[in-house]
């Protein structure tokens, strides 16, 4: 599998102060593996230490989990005092007047399951002909063992669990777990076991998508974007959604700020805005920012930008830059120096809040556009691709450009979203000017590409239309703009990751 969503073999590193001045270094590739393959790696480690320490696999698994898979620490402590390790991990019972110093080198047997105890079960008090017990001889009926183990699994406490008898310190071996667990919970147990293994091993990271059973294996560690087979792109370092060009610390800070400021910006999240000309309410139901007040819906036909609400005709190179509303202009009040300290403080807070809301609205706008493109447009595009193949006999290879264009829009929206979080914390100066220029060029091309992706394909599906030249012209335009937009994306990321003006 490719190791980068951007066809790049570089990763971004930040210094201790986490300032936006990253450096680059060559990185190794990563691998996406299914859950059962991770379990195989876990079992190989268990087998290795079972042979190395001369113990059963049950004991080896308990010891490795107890030591949080820190194998060197386990080996050192085992050589220093085997019996002490056994007792503390719960694979052997302590004895009266236990002396750790005298126990060095003492060899004990493997964990055993003992059956055949007569009498009542200590949990349900029902008399059973046979009950299961560990070395501690605390026998319980099969029904109670099953309920106990299922409850441990469902409550996520099965790792490191002990015998159900009160105050018994003997650890619960996997042999007993597998014997009594219900089939419905077996998969949950295996996932919990693998999660415990992966969380303690820094080269593994579970995909954070709900219900996904893939794991990323990345030996080089650090900040790197992982593209899972389920389609989610996430950060290996923090486990959040991919967030280039923002470092993990900035993402965390931005999310905390969003949570704290949520009540102050509720009004900005309204689903409609008024047409700047006729004041009719406009709903944004697609991803691009080119809005039209539809005459057929009672509007005036005015075309404007969703973000700045300026005329869309002004958004071109002849007016000083395609996307002027991507720059935050500091508003300096010359009379501010005359204000009292309290009034000045209040004015500063208001200015900072206005700045935050400005950046947040653009962040939120790209997030919504990304979500629309991911959940609706990509799926609809795949359906149209199939229809073009079935109804117009286009080879699948001929229509693949539609999906590639939609995927590029999703990637660009995600990156643009995080450029506004990055830009919020970036100080004014030459670096910010260059950053905003690169951001503007990417935003311009993304908007145009998004419009092309959203273009209705119904005319190309009309069975009565035999001329395919309009379709191939559309294909040429979309393919070219996909490549151009991808290049501007790479320019933005490379510019930031190379230190902009440096």
Q: State the CATH architecture of the largest domain.
A: Up-down Bundle
Q: Supply the number of helical segments.
A: 13
What is the β-strand count? Answer: 13
The parts where pLDDT drops under 50 for at least 5 residues are 1-28, 266-270, 330-339
CATH domain topology of the largest domain: Four Helix Bundle (Hemerythrin (Met), subunit A)
Decide which structural class fits the backbone.
mainly alpha
Q: Give the H and E element order.
A: EEEHHHHEEHHHEEEEHEEEEHHHHH
- Major sheet size, sense and barrel closure: 3 strands, antiparallel
Quick one: overall form? elongated
Fraction of helical residues: 40-55%
**Under the CATH scheme, which class of the largest domain?**
Mainly Alpha
N- to C-terminal distance: 33 Å
What is the assembly state of the chains in this entry? single chain
Q: Averaging pLDDT over every residue, what do you get? A: 81
Strand content: 5-15%
Work out the count of structural domains. 3
> What's the gyration radius in Å?
31 Å
Across the major sheet, the strand order is 3-7-6
Description:
With 502 residues, this protein is mainly α. It folds into 3 domains: 10-30 and 204-246, no CATH class; 35-94 and 110-196, no CATH class; 250-497, Four Helix Bundle (Hemerythrin (Met), subunit A) (Up-down Bundle), CATH 1.20.120. Helix content is 47%, strand content 8%. The chain has 13 helices and 13 strands. The protein has helices at residues 35-53, 57-66, 71-80, 82-89, 142-154, 174-180, 183-200, 248-261, 341-392, 396-425, 430-453, 458-461, 469-497, and strands at 10-13, 23-26, 31-34, 114-115, 132-133, 204-206, 214-217, 225-227, 233-235, 272-274, 281-283, 290-292, 303-305. Strands 3-7-6 form a 3-stranded antiparallel β-sheet. A hairpin with a 6-residue loop joins strand 10 and strand 11 (281-283). The radius of gyration is 31 Å and the shape is elongated. The chain starts with 9 loop residues before the first strand and ends in a 5-residue tail after the last helix. Residues 1-28, 266-270 and 330-339 have low confidence and may be disordered.
